[in-house]
Amino acid sequence: MLRSLRPETSALAEDLIDALCGLLLLPFMPATALWHIGWLLRQLLPAAPGGGPRLTDQQCGLLESAMRLSRQFLMAELNGAWPACLRWIWRTASHLHGAPEVGTCSPTA
User: Fold this and answer.
1) Along the 109 residues of the chain, how does pLDDT read in single tens digits?
2) 61 in a domain, yes or no?
3) How many domains does the chain have?
4) Long-range contact list for 19-27, CB < 8 A, 24+ apart?
5) What residues contact 21, with CB distance under 8 A and at least 6 apart?
6) Were both Cys, which of 32, 45, 55, 66 would link to 24 (CB 3.0–4.6 Å)?
């Protein structure tokens, strides 16, 4: 697609790559937007050696920061999900099998 870039097109592509890397740092970016940004980056950064613009150190740093933020947001989102999921599973299983509810168990003597 962009394998034979003219100098002015190459500069435009580098500016676009900078902008896309910056967008990845926005908090709470929808998954569809992240997918489209990744697709655009893939189109601008061909896999063939010497075939188009390459990431600068600053752009690599932005991508690493974006990955770190995404990982933190995912972990924060999943942090409260597992206890709620386990409570739901316990309630469903206890209802089906006649086991006591959580918190109503009395110690046996």
Assistant:
1) 444 445 556 778 788 888 998 898 887 788 889 889 989 988 888 765 666 677 888 888 988 998 898 888 888 877 777 777 777 887 887 777 665 555 544 455 4
2) yes
3) 1
4) 20/44, 21/59, 21/62, 21/63, 21/66, 22/62, 24/62, 24/63, 24/66, 25/62, 25/65, 25/66, 25/69, 27/69, 27/73
5) 41, 59, 62, 63, 66
6) 66
Q: Is there a domain that residue 75 lies in?
A: yes
Residue 2 falls inside a structural domain: no
Asked if residue 106 is part of any domain, the answer here is no
Distance between CA atoms of residues 26 and 29, nearest Å: 6
Residue type, 63: L
Give yes or no for a contact between 1 and 45, defined as CB atoms under 8 angstroms apart: no
The whole-model pTM stands at 0.57
For residue 72, give the DSSP letter: H
Q: How many CA atoms lie within 13 Å of 76's alpha carbon, on the beta-carbon side?
A: 8
